[in-house]
Amino acid sequence: MEQRNSMMQWVIGVLALVVGMGGGYYYGNMMGHNRGVEAGIAQEKAAEIARREAAEREAASAINPFNQGSANPFEKASANPFDDVNVNPFK
User: Fold this and answer.
1) Under DSSP, is residue 49 helix (H, G, I), strand (E, B) or coil?
2) For each of the chain's 91 residues, which pLDDT tens digit applies?
3) Which sequence ranges are marked TM in the entry (predicted)?
4) Full domain range(s) for residue 37
């Protein structure tokens, strides 16, 4: 009787261990899946915000008339435009 009782305890222990491992695997898999989905959604939202901000900056720079070219229209001109002028027409 004692032999049978000991064997039954082992069977129940192993069965409880298998059920516990299965439940833990299922719970961990579901929690990991949920965290992965949440992380993926957060990553996609961050990428969308970055794309939107880049598009806004590009649109703003395309519309801004003062951002086209230099601010000084005489940047390429010489310092004194009258150096080469012939002042006396009779010389």
Assistant:
1) helix
2) 677 788 899 999 999 999 999 999 888 888 888 888 888 899 999 999 999 999 999 988 888 777 666 667 677 766 776 777 777 777 7
3) 6-27
4) 1-45
> What are 45's two structure tokens?
């939202």
Work out the angle at residue 32's Cα, subtended by the Cα atoms of residues 27 and 34, and round it to the nearest 5 degrees: 95
In a domain? residue 55: no
Q: Do 29 and 36 form a contact (C-beta atoms < 8 A)?
A: no
56 within a domain of the structure (yes/no): no
The number of folded domains in the chain is 1
Output the six-digit token pair for 53: 């901000």
pTM score, two decimals? 0.44
Task: Evaluate whether residue 86 is within a structural domain.
Answer: no
